[in-house]
Amino acid sequence: MCPDINEAHHDIFFEFYRDKCLVYAPLRNVAAWVNRTAGEMLQQSLGNALPGVLPVALEPLREQLAQTPRKPPAPPEGTFAPRQVSFLPTNGCNMRCLYCAPAAGDRDTGVMPLEVCEAGLRYQTEVVRQFNYGSLTVSLFGGEPFCAWDQVRYIVETGKRLADELARPFIITADTNAFMSPTKAHWAAQNMNYLVVSLDGPPSIHDLNRPSATGSGTYDAVARTLDIFAAEGLGYTLRCTVSAGMVDLLPEIAGHFCQRFRPRNMNFEPLMRTGRCLESDLKTPGIPQYVNAVVAAGKVAREHGVGLKFGMVRPERLDCSSCLVACDHLVLAPDGLAAACYAADHRESEYAPLFSLGAYDFETRTLRIDQKRVELMRSYAVHDIPRCQGCFCQWHCAGGCRIHHSPPYCTDAPGAMCAATRRLTLWRILQDMGLSAEADQIRLEEEETNALAA
Ligand code: SF4
Ligand code: SF4
Predict the structure, then answer these.
(1) Strands, DSSP E only, in 253-395?
(2) Does residue 65 lie in a domain region?
(3) Atom of ligand 2 nearest to the CA of 340
(4) Is the pTM of this model over 0.90?
């Protein structure tokens, strides 16, 4: 945003790229790709209290920008009202991925007592009834949820029954490694609505990064599962974690995914040096290399009619929080901790103080949520993150992850991941405007990364 722009135009952004400029005001439904001179003239015109003299050709855009913006996205108010309940049926896992953030399988491998599963479902059922939501919605995460087979089946059976009583549909999704038997794969295809499946590429990459708990390769079993999903019509996203050693191969990996499998979407997120990754040789990709490889992979995806989804690059949504953390998220850990973030995966977790909302009380068999903690989570929304004010991605990226990118109330200057997010958001907006040829030319150079981040 131009520092001269007055308060009335704080939601209008000018993102300059080479000799062009994106004029962007998502709260006014305006996105225009103009030449740099036109962008500068409009910017100056808006910065003046009195309208400046503009070329006639720019007047229609100036008029569009003069419309009243809608209100920025904000966290919910009032009683805690999660749109979904998320379960971590277990923190255990049948894989030992080299970069696993929670190092799943190395420590707590217990499973969720069925009474906690039931309490979570009943709590959410009451929320759906009280707020008249359109569905009883559940998501599964982990660990690897399908390792807690009895819990997953119980959640589905009980959830369907409760949804029937509500006369609402039951919707269930999961993040999974898909390293499962054909029996489980068929069951998942018949009982789940959508899955995010982790796959890092062809066997030469995937088997190195994502071995089983016994050290064997897992690609063949995952591919078999995906074939079952395709045969039974279950939709899924393929999620690939991008390390430095494979970043230049992203276009080939995208091609492999599109040709060998049938994903609806693909997701390429950069590896984070955390958890088990700290004990491995895997490195985070260079930011410019990552951005340029994603743009090249995006062209492959478009040619195959497959979408690309990202955690932080999502101009398709206006939100105050990248994940659900500030928007009333109910995550239940195996030991009954209730939190707003998946990383708070047990009561002693280092993230529990930051994200806990309450807990299941095994004595009274009640799930207790502390409304004061709910209000605290809502204060983690992007409007309370100084680093994001003035960024044209602030209602799309919305600060990114509150652990790995922008902690609550973050006052740090935007970092290298912000540079990637901004450049890729520009790229996505151009695609959404139908300017694919221009989008394909978007690049991030090394020397630009610091300037964009500052
Ligand atoms: S400043 Fe960074 S974290 Fe904040 S919205 Fe922009 S890109 Fe996202
Ligand atoms: S804060 Fe980060 S780790 Fe927690 S749920 Fe959100 S994106 Fe995931």
Answers:
(1) 265-270, 307-308, 330-332, 337-339, 356-361, 366-369
(2) yes
(3) 5
(4) yes
